[in-house]
Amino acid sequence: MLGSSLVALAMATTRPLRAATPQVRQVSETLAIPGGRFIVGRDKGRITSLRDASGRLSGDVLKAGARLGNLCGVWRTQGGAWSRFDTAGMSGAIEALPGQGAEIQYPLAKGVSLSCRLLLDGECLKVLVRIENATAAPVEFGDVALPLPINRIDDTNKDPDALLKHSFIAGQSSHVFWRHKDVSKPWLAMLPEKGSSLEYWDAPKDSSDLYRVYFHAAAQVAAVRKAGSRWRLPASSLIVPAGESREMGVRFLLVDGQDAMRRAIADHGLLDVEVVPGMTVPVGSEVRLSFGSRVPVEALIAEHGAETRIAAAGQRANRQVYVLRFERLGENHITVRQADGGITTLEFFVTQAVETMIAKRGAFIAAHRHSDPAAWYNGLLAEWNMETQTLLGPDNYDRITGWRIYEVTCDDPGLSKPAFLAAKNAEFPVQAEIDALDDYVEHFVWGGLQRSTAESQAYGIYGIPDWHRNRTSSDPGPRGQMHIWRVYDYPHIAVMYFSLYRIARDHPDVRTRLSAATYLERAFGTARAMFVIPRQVADWDANSIGYYNELVIPDVIDALRREGRKDEAQELAALWEAKVHHFVNEVSDLYVSEYAFDSTGFESTQAIARYGMDRPERFAPDKVRAFNRAQMEANLFCRGWLQPSYYYLGSDYRASAGDAYTLSYMAQMGGWAILDHALHDVDDPRPLLRLGHAAALSSWALLNSGTPDSGYGYWYPGAANDGGAGGGFEPAALGETWLNQPHRHGSWYYACEIDLGFCGALRAARTTLVDDDLFGRIAMGGEFREEQGRLLVSPRDGVRRRFHARLGTAGLDLEVQGGCRFAANASIALKPDLSAWEAVIEHAQGPARSVRMIVSSPAGKDAGIRLHTASGEAREVAPGHFEIQIARGSRSTRIFGVKG
After folding, report:
1. 8 A C-beta contact, residue 893 and residue 856
2. Which of 435, 611, 461 has its CA nearest to residue 534?
3. Helix (H) or strand (E) holding 334
4. Which candidate, 291, 242, 286, 285, places its Cα nearest to that of 270?
5. Start-end of H helices in 172-257
C-alpha cells in the first residue's frame, strides 16, 4: 500500500501560493556566536527563528510557526517494503551542543537511527544529517528530504520580509538563495556540504514544508515517473552497510549579492556556470560554457554523444571553457564530472533555427482559425490542444473550464495570437497569413471584439468571457455591454494594427485589405482608447501599471509624425508622456499588477525608461536614471540567472519562485528589456548581454517544432502539432498548470499567452559581436569569423534587422527598417576598429523607394557617420537616421558605412 501512497504524494500539485492563516512563532531560547552572521531562535531543538545578526537582511527568514531541522523520507531493510518517516511528528532525544546548537536523534527501528545537528559554525549555519545502522544487515534510504520553510513571497500579500527563492537542484552544484524584493543585500544562501548532493525537490501544496530538497530521491522519482512524469534528472538511494553510518548536509550563509554568490559557489567547490548564447539553443549553433570552481572539471559527458560535439577550449579569467554543438532536437543533458567525483547535470533544450520557428509559428496560427460565416466567432485565430489535437472555440472549450474559458477568444491569451502573427508578417510577410489576419480584423474584431467608429466609445475592446456575451448582455453597464475597461487588452490590438500598417507600408509584394493609413489610424485610435476608455467606464487608470506590448506606443507616435499626422502624434505623445512621468516620479512598487506580486511589467518599464533617457530635455535626467536602475534591478530580481537549466536561465519568476510556470511570455519580453538596457544604459554590458540573449531564446523551448525524423516536435510529436506551442513550462514533476490542467513536468499543451513572449522575441532578436570577459570575441545571435583583417558576422537571430558591436571602447549599432533585413547569405564585414563596414540588405522587389537605416555608436560617438550605396550617398534625415535608396526591381542592396 505504501507504493500507492508514494504515487499519491507524488501527484500533489504545485499551485500559485495563497496567503496562509497567520501562525505563531515559538522561541524558547536564542543562540549567537561571536563573529557569526546569524541569530538563531529554537524551540524543542528545532530552529524556529533565523535572523541576520547585522540586521541588514530585515525580518525573520523562517515562516512563523515553522521549524527548520525536520527530515522526511522513506527507508527499508534491503528487499523489504518502504517505511515512511517524518521527524516533524516524532519525539527525538535532544542533546545540547554548548555554544554551537543542538543535535536531535530519532530512532527509526531497533539499531537504525537518524540524527540532525543544527550548528552555528563561523559565519554559517549548518544542518547536518547522520544515519546510523547498528544492525547486522544493510538498510536502504529511498528518500531523504529536508523541508525549507523559508518565509516566501506569495501573490496575495505584501509582507515586506518575504523572500523570493532562486534554486538549482541538479547534483553536487545545487544551490538555493532567497532575496528581498527591495533588492537589498545580503541574500540568504544554501549550499550542500562537501560530499553531499541535492537531486530532487518538491513543493507540496497545503503543507507547512513549503519547499523540500532531497539528498536522495530514488523512491520519489520512481513514484512520479510511475504517475506519468517526464522527470529525467538522475536520482539515487542510499545504502548504509551493516555497522556503518553516512552523513550529508547543507550550510546556510549570507552573501552580498550576485558576485558574492558566484564566488561562494566556486569557493565551496561547486560549479559556477556561465553560458552563451543560453540554455535554449538553436541546433548546430556554437555553445560556450565557462566553469568557475575551486575543484576543476574533469569531463563533460553528453547524453547523446553521437549527436553532440564537445571540445575543451582552455582557460580564460581563471575559468575552464568548453565549446559544444548539439545536433539532436529537444532536451539534451550534459553531465559534468569534477575532480572530486562530484556530478552535476546541465539541462539544455535544442530548437530548430529561430527563423524556422518564427515561420512555423506564423503558419500554424494562420492555419488554425475558425472560418464559418454563420458563426459570431468567424475569423477567430484559435487555441489548439497539442495533446489531443483539438481546435478550441466558443462551442468547444475542451478542457478549459470555469471563468478561464475567456482564454479561447479574448484577453491576453486570445489576443496574443493576432499580435504575434501580425508582428511576424511585418518581418516575413506571407500572403495567406495576411489574409487570415484581415479576416480576423474584418469578421471578429471590427464591430465585434472592438467597437467601431460607428459606435459610441469607439475603439473600446471587450473583455471576458467574450465580446458576444458582453454585447448581448442585459446589463448595459461595465459588467455587460460596457465591459471594455481592461487596459491590458488594448496594446495587443494596437500591435496588430501597427504591424499591419508596417506590412502595407513596407512590403509592396503582398496585399492587405485596408490601406496603410487606415491601419495606422486604428493603431492610434486603439492606443488612445487605452488611456481614455477604461478610465471613463471603470475608473481604471492606464498609468498605474506597466502593460505588455504597450512599448508599441512610441513607434505609433513616430509613425504618425512621419506620415504628417502631427495633431494625433501630439495627443498620443501627451498621454504616453504622462505615464512616463508617473512611473519616473511616483511609482514605488514595480511588482504590482493584477496581483500584489508579479513579474509582468518589466518590458514596459524599460520602454518607459528608454523614452525618458532619450529625452533629457523633457524628463529630469537624475530621476530617470534612478528609475532606470530601479526597474532593471526589479527585472533581474525575479529572473533566473545563476541557474543553468533551460527552464530557469533567463526566465521570469512569479510568486511560485521557479516551482511553477516558468518560461512565460515575460521571459522573452523581459529579455528585450535586458538587452536594451545592456546596450545603452550600463558601462559594462557583457553580463547583461549574456543574460539578455539567453532570455530572448529561452521560451522558444516551448515551440513544438521539428523535423520528420524528430517527430515534428519534442513535447507533443506529430505533424499536426508542428508549430504549436505551450503557454508555459512546469518545473515540478507533477501538478497543475495555471489553466488547471494536470501536467507531467514540461510544456503545457495549450499556447495560452506565449505568443506575447514571441512578440518580445521578435523585438529582442539581434546579433551582438562583443569582446566578452569570459569567452573572448563572440557573436551572440550569429556566427563570427576573422578573414583577411576583417571581422565577418552572419546574423542568425531569426529576424536579421539589428546588429551591435561592443569591442573594447568601440561600438556600433545598425538597424534596418522598411521591410529590409541583412542578407542571409552575406556577412556583415567590419574593420576591427569599427571605423568602416559593409553589409548587404535584402528586400522585396518593387518600385524604387527609400528605406531607413539607423546607425549609432554608444556614448554619443555618432558624429561623422556616412553611408552610401552604388547609387550614391545616403541622406541623413535625422540624427543617425539615413534614407537608403532601393532600385526598382532589385532584391538586395549593398551598403557601405564609414565613421569619422
Report:
1. no
2. 461
3. strand 330-338
4. 291
5. 218-226
- Its sign, for the CA torsion 98, 99, 104, 110, is negative
CB atoms within 10 A of CB 110: 8
C-alpha cell at 574: 501627451
Q: End-to-end CA distance of the chain, in Å?
A: 79
Alpha-carbon span 297 to 295, nearest angstrom? 7
- Whether the pLDDT of residue 691 is over 90: the answer is yes
Which set of grid coordinates corresponds to residue 622? 537624475
DSSP state of 499: H
| β-strand partners of 330 | 350
User: What pLDDT does residue 859 have?
Assistant: 60
- Residue 408, CB-side half-sphere exposure with 13 Å CA sphere: 25
Task: Please answer whether residues 180 and 673 qualify as being in contact, where contact means their C-beta atoms are separated by less than 8 angstroms.
Answer: no
Mean pLDDT of 213-217: 98
Q: What is the mean pLDDT of residues 333-353?
A: 98
pLDDT tens column, 663-672 = 999 999 999 9
DSSP run (H or E) holding 106: strand 101-109
Per the CB < 8 A criterion, the answer to whether 192 and 182 are in contact is: no
CA distance linking residue 738 with residue 795, whole number of Å: 36
Residue 3 has pLDDT above 50, yes or no: no
For residue 15, the model assigns a pLDDT of: 38
Which residue's entry shows cell 552497510? 241
pLDDT digits (tens, 9 = 90+) for 280-335: 999 999 999 999 999 999 999 999 999 999 999 999 999 999 999 999 999 999 99
- Kindly report, residue by residue over 517-552, the tens digit of the pLDDT: 999 999 999 999 999 999 999 999 999 999 999 999
Nearest to 761 by CA among 496, 502, 428, 420: 420
Give residues with Cβ within 8 angstroms of 491, minimum separation 6.
Answer: 527, 530, 547, 548, 549, 550, 552, 553
Q: Are 167 and 201 in contact (CB under 8 A)?
A: yes
CA distance 643 to 638: 12
Cα–Cα distance for residue pair 364/432, rounded to 1 Å: 11
Tell the residue number behind the cell numbers 503557454, with chain if given: 727
Quickly count: other Cβ atoms within 10 Å of residue 479's Cβ.
13
Pull the grid cell for residue 407.
482564454
The number of C-alpha atoms within 13 Å of 501 and in the hemisphere containing its C-beta is: 22
Query: Which are the contacts of 201, defined by CB distance < 8 A and separation ≥ 6?
Result: 167, 169, 211, 212, 213, 214, 659
CA distance 798 to 222: 40
| Residue owning grid cell 491569451 | 413
Q: How far apart are CA 751 and CA 386, in angstroms?
A: 9
> Residue 681: what pLDDT?
97
* CA triple 201-202-208, angle to 5 deg: 125
